[in-house]
Amino acid sequence: MAGALHGAVRGLESLETLVIMAFVAVAIAAVTPIVVDQLSKARASAEMQIYVGFFSVLADSLESDYAMGGVQRLFQFPEARLGSLRAYNLTYVLVEETANCFPTLTLIVPALEYRLGVLVIAPGILRGGPGLLAPLGDAMYMVESDGLSVSLRPRVVYHNGTGEKFLYVTNGSVVLSPGYTFTALQYEVGNLEFLGPYTCGGARAVLMDQRGDRLGDVYLGDGDVYIVVSPVVLYVR
Length: 237
Hints:
With about 240 residues, the protein is an alpha+beta fold. It has one helix and twelve strands, in the order αββββββββββββ.
């Protein structure tokens, strides 16, 4: 009788162990996708931050080399395992809309983008201020996030002096090498070009995209306007 009772107790203990193990297995199964998702987001966030840093360093270099004709620099792209990269050309159109004193200038400007499929960064400007037309002293290259991507692109910078006004622009392009894999980027700065002076009375410079959408404007007033053009070409390998 005692042996039978002992066996029954052992059976109940075994059953209790199986029930506990079953609950543990269910709990692990429920938690695992959450843990995997969190780890994936952490890795994605880390890679996004790497590209925020890379674009910021590249922007610093491009800005310091503005107007330095003949300069060439080479950068290695960080590895993009979770996101995708894009290099493309934007079109800016610079016009004077009130006095019609300087000709319309169409600019091709290089841009870079790193994009993820998940939201890991808050939208906003990460380098530079708002707008693609900015006063001298602000960043000439903007690094911006829309939440899913981070991008690098140049801005038009102006100096609104008492008599002489200056518009500093970038003109160039992205060139994709045959068989490019985003392993390296080289840029070359061309010779500086001066356009003007254009004698203006009540001039307003307006920056638009190729569709005619207004990107920004600044009232320059009266005086001589110079447009300073620094060509730059980005070669993507």
